[in-house]
Every structure is written in structure tokens, then in C-alpha cells.
Amino acid sequence: MTEKAIILDDKAMARAIARMSYQIIERNKGVDNLVIIGILSRGAQIAERIARRIQEVEGKTVEVGLLDITAHRDDLHTGADYQDKSSIPFDFNDKTVVLVDDVMYTGRSVRAAIDGLMDRGRPRSIQLAVLIDRGHRELPIRPDYIGKNVPTSKNEQIQVFVTERDGIDKVSIL
User: Fold this and answer.
1) Which of 66, 70, 95, 164 has its Cα between 20 and 30 A from that of 114?
2) What is the pLDDT of residues 56-66, one digit of tens each?
């Protein structure tokens, strides 16, 4: 597919992540008892960036985990050779979990992520941060923190690029 437009360039993406970071700090009155878990793949890089920004502002380190939702998706079936790529090397029971994804669309990925979290523990609460909210929900799930709302048609796609994986930071509409 060809790129129709760039929705966020590297600077706009950095501003959106900074804004979400400040909102997380404000809503939670600091970062005590808070962890951040990014949905693989690009949600993980965004989660790391949010945690770095929070550390710069608060002077406190927030633990960051990575969640592979493949086994919990309703549109994929994992084979016997499936290996969970999640990495959550800390206890998040009775903590506030900020779940981070790159694009919010139907809500099905977030539902799978919540199932994956609940299989691993019992958080006090789960908040949702997404870089892009494009609408078209099929499930009653809404993000708490949004980098940018981008109304789209169902025929369009949003592609998030992060330097760590793609060599560039930008969000495009295809």
C-alpha cells in the first residue's frame, strides 16, 4: 500500500509520548506502585520511551515489561512450536499497570492483552495508553491516554514506525 500522509513525524511523536507520560504521572499522583507493560511489538518500544520520560521527570525508575498477546488473540491459533516472547520480570500484583499499544482499533488486541495479564497476576487496576486511536471499536474498551486521535475509514491502515525496529520514527496512514 502507498503512504497517503504522515500523521506524526519524529518530533510530533516525541511530543505525544511526552504528553502521555505527564498525564500518567498526574492521574496517578506520581509513579509509586506503577508499572508499564508494552504490547509486542511496537507498543513495547513506546512503553520504554514512556518509562524513560517518567524517569526524567520524576527521578524514579518505573519497571517495564513486554507482553506477547499471540496466544490470547481470537484470530490466530498457535501451534505446538509457539514460544511466548513476553518478558515481565517483576511482580505486578496489586499494582497499577499501564498497558501500552501503538494503535487502538477494534479493541481486540487490548482484550487479548488483558487476558494475558490476568493469566500472570492480579493488578490493582489497568490503564491503557495508545499512541494512535483510530476508532471503529468492536468491544467496549477505551484508552485512558491517547497520543493522537486519527479518524479513519475501515479501508485505511495506520503504520507506526519506531527507530528501534524500523530506523525511523513516524506514523503514516496507508
Assistant:
1) 164
2) 999 999 999 99
Q: What pLDDT digit, counting tens, does each position of 77-117 carry? A: 666 777 889 999 999 999 999 999 999 999 999 999 999 99
Q: What does pTM read for this prediction?
A: 0.94
- Report the Cα–Cα distance between both ends of the chain, in Å, rounded: 6
Phi and psi (nearest 5°) for 24?
Answer: -65, -45
48: cell is 520504554
Closest of 76, 138, 92, 79 to residue 111, by C-alpha: 138
Residues 3 and 168: beta-carbon distance below 8 Å: no
Which residue reads 485505511 in cell numbers? Answer: 156
Which pairs from 10-14 meet CB under 8 Å and 24+ separation? Answer: 10/168, 10/169, 10/170, 12/148, 13/131, 13/147, 13/169, 13/170, 13/171, 14/169
